[in-house]
Amino acid sequence: MQMKKEGPYEAITHDVVRDDGYRILISGAYNALGLIGSEYNGIVVLDEKDKTVVTDCIGRQSSGWYYGQDTGPGKALVKLFEDLQYASPEAFADRVNTLGVARACQRAEDRTQEVVAEMVKTVEKVGLDTAFDVIADALHEMADREGIPEGEERDAWRRQMMEATYVTPRADEEDLAVILVNFGATRAQVEEAATFRAPAASDDEGIRHDG
Predict the structure, then answer these.
(1) Rounded distance, CA 59 to CA 160, Å?
(2) What is the value of pTM for the model shown?
(3) Pair 15, 23: CB distance under 8 Å
(4) Ordered per-residue pLDDT tens for the chain, 211 residues
(5) Can you state the angle between helices 173-182 and 128-146, rounded to 10 degrees?
(6) How many CB atoms lie within 10 A of CB 122?
């Protein structure tokens, strides 16, 4: 399956411009400042005239198709894409307003910067160790989805992913915020993790921060 990219949207399988000037595409991953996360996927609606992102992640699947996956979007997502492609202007506007969160007048790069900036504040609030724990959990969940067996194979995969996403013990708040956004973590999830984190050092094999 040959896939392309547009701005921060990666692994694009479907792409069409409607007669009314709106461009719709199906993206399998999102490039957040150089870090690619397949958790952000689905239908993207672009305003070609104003060069803005109207909305994205419509019909989002539990995982995209970037990290070695060749399945592509599900049938339901493709059907939704086709419905939006051929809908009348009125029906199109109604479906988009119902299904998506409006992003009008805001470029994708600007939105990513804003999301990361808010995540930086959250990481500063909960501490670096909690952020590392959330990233470790995200890697375990991703490995489960990819079907990576426990043991040496998963450990090797985990090290490779850490290197690819620049997860190091010396990472600062902004580094970790970018990685968390890339992995699809929300501020609420990070704050919740902080409430469940024991005061003592955990014996889990999560990523530790050297201070």
Answers:
(1) 30
(2) 0.49
(3) yes
(4) 556 888 888 889 999 999 999 999 999 888 766 667 777 788 999 988 878 888 888 888 776 665 445 567 888 889 999 999 999 998 898 888 777 654 443 445 555 677 788 889 999 999 988 888 888 888 887 778 777 888 888 888 888 777 766 677 778 888 888 888 777 678 888 888 888 765 544 444 444 444 4
(5) 30
(6) 22
